[in-house]
Specification:
The relative contact order is 0.16. The N and C termini lie far apart (45 Å). The protein is of the alpha/beta class and 396 residues long. A hairpin with a 7-residue loop joins strand 10 and strand 11. It folds into two domains: 145 residues, Alpha-Beta Complex (Aspartate Aminotransferase, domain 1); 239 residues, Type I PLP-dependent aspartate aminotransferase-like (Major domain) (Aspartate Aminotransferase, domain 2), CATH 3.40.640. The strands form three sheets. An eight-stranded mixed beta sheet has the order 2-9-8-7-6-3-4-5, with helices on both faces. A four-stranded antiparallel beta sheet has the order 10-11-14-13. Strands 1-12 form a two-stranded parallel sheet. Bound molecules: 4'-deoxy-4'-aminopyridoxal-5'-phosphate. InterPro entries: Aminotransferase_I/II_large, Class-I_PLP-dep_aminotransf, PyrdxlP-dep_Trfase, PyrdxlP-dep_Trfase_major, PyrdxlP-dep_Trfase_small.
């Protein structure tokens, strides 16, 4: 074709996960591949009542444009919820409603990144964020991680020796893809480093409220004294993703830039979606709903952990997440998780090979498993089949 595309698209490909998900649509496939919530927990009956109430009580408002910042009562509730759940001290004015937190990730790139600027991130990190930010032509530097998340000494080393670091992207709670959580000492150390270098931080936190066990840990935003942390939240995992509602919480100067991006992208998030989610919180108990989600995922996590302990060879390592949706499997060196995924798919089991979670590539023996979206018996069966394939790979 003779048309010429923008240079910024040169390094962009469709998400590997989205391609893979197409193959996992067959009903017989046991899929650990997506990051999807359990649909049987969606409050469908409640939302029928909610939508009728919104249209009967405020139909004309619901079907009209609203402000770019978002529907005021919903912003109030989000600020209150953050202050209660995450120990922040924020106001409704600090919140911009976005189309999922994914849109906030795109805006972060748009706001901070010129071609060749450096983004620091955990290695591995959420590929959806990396892909969104890639459009702004950054260079990614991956900071090594261990079982407690980003290694702060490594971060310090990189900051001390690298020019043009414009932004740090992190997921400190139940990370996607690894399921890991940073302990308190790391959070404090991180903030100390950040305050020294004064670099903006994107704290992506879709899973923080989904803690099944262990102690609550404060968000980076709640530890931020200089207005450097830009917090991204979402209703996708504590409620449902279909409304596409998330938010950005940041200092006024920064939020103003995000607001300008929002105006250009789509003017505002859907008025009726915002009003329905707001109304759900008036008519029903979101906390109780979150508890139901946690109880279900905790069981599924336990079943997956037990099955992996029983079935996987000892040379396979995996994380033990205290919340969230994912565990991360490290296969013995030499096993290629991408090749192995094809063999698993022949046995109707799917997962995401880890390679695409490393922005600079080069790691082939990891994979991400999701446990929120499959019933317990299928989790056991899927892990059994995966274990058979791993054993075959090791025997080769
Ligand atoms: N950040 C992370 C770490 C995620 O895992 C996801 C979704 N899987 C998102 C952001 C985007 O979610 P949403 O746009 O639905 O809020």
């Amino acid at each position: 074709m003779a048309v010429k595309f923008a240079k910024r698209l040169d390094n962009l490909e469709g998400s590997a996960i989205r391609e893979l998900l197409k193959l996992t649509q067959r009903p017989e496939v046991i899929s650990f591949a997506g990051g999807m919530p359990a649909p049987e927990l969606f409050p469908v009956e409640e939302m029928k009542k909610v939508s009728v109430a919104v249209l009967e009580e405020q139909g004309q408002v619901a079907l009209q444009y609203t402000t770019t910042e978002g529907y005021a009562p919903l912003r109030e509730k989000i600020a209150d919820r953050m202050n209660t759940k995450l120990k922040t001290n924020v106001k409704a004015d600090d919140i911009l409603i976005t189309s999922g937190s994914q849109q906030g990730l795109d805006f972060a790139g748009k706001v901070f990144i010129d071609e060749g600027d450096v983004i620091l991130c955990e290695s591995p990190s959420y590929m959806g964020a990396l892909n969104a930010m890639k459009a702004y032509q950054p260079k990614f530097i991956e900071i090594p991680t261990d079982n407690d998340g980003m290694i702060m000494e490594e971060l310090e080393k990189v900051l001390a020796t690298t020019d043009r670091v414009k932004m740090i992207y992190v997921i400190p709670d139940f990370q996607n893809p690894s399921g890991r959580t940073w302990p308190m000492e790391r959070r404090l150390k991180f903030m100390e480093i950040i305050n020294k270098y004064e670099i903006p931080v994107i704290e992506d936190n879709p899973y923080g409220e989904l803690r099944f066990d262990g102690e609550f840990l404060p968000s980076l935003k709640s530890l931020d004294t200089k207005g450097l942390v830009i917090f991204l939240g979402t209703f996708s995992k504590i409620f449902c993703p279909g409304y596409r509602l998330g938010w950005t919480c940041a200092a006024p100067e920064i939020l103003n830039k995000f607001n300008i991006c929002k105006q250009g992208a789509d003017l505002q998030a859907s008025t009726i979606s915002q009003m329905e989610v707001n109304k759900f919180m008036d008519m029903f108990d979101l906390d109780a709903h979150v508890e139901k989600i946690k109880a279900c995922y905790r069981k599924r996590r336990d079943v997956m952990m037990k099955a992996m302990e029983e079935e996987f060879p000892d040379s396979v390592e995996f994380t033990h997440p205290q919340g969230g949706l994912f565990t991360w499997v490290i296969l013995p060196e030499g096993i290629n998780a991408g090749e192995m995924a094809k063999k698993c798919l022949e046995k109707d089991v799917a997962y995401v090979p880890g390679e695409s979670f490393y922005p600079n590539g080069g790691v082939y023996n990891t994979c991400r498993l999701n446990y929120s979206n499959m019933p317990e018996d299928k989790i056991v069966e899927g892990i059994k089949r995966m274990a058979e394939v791993i054993k075959e790979e090791l025997a080769e």
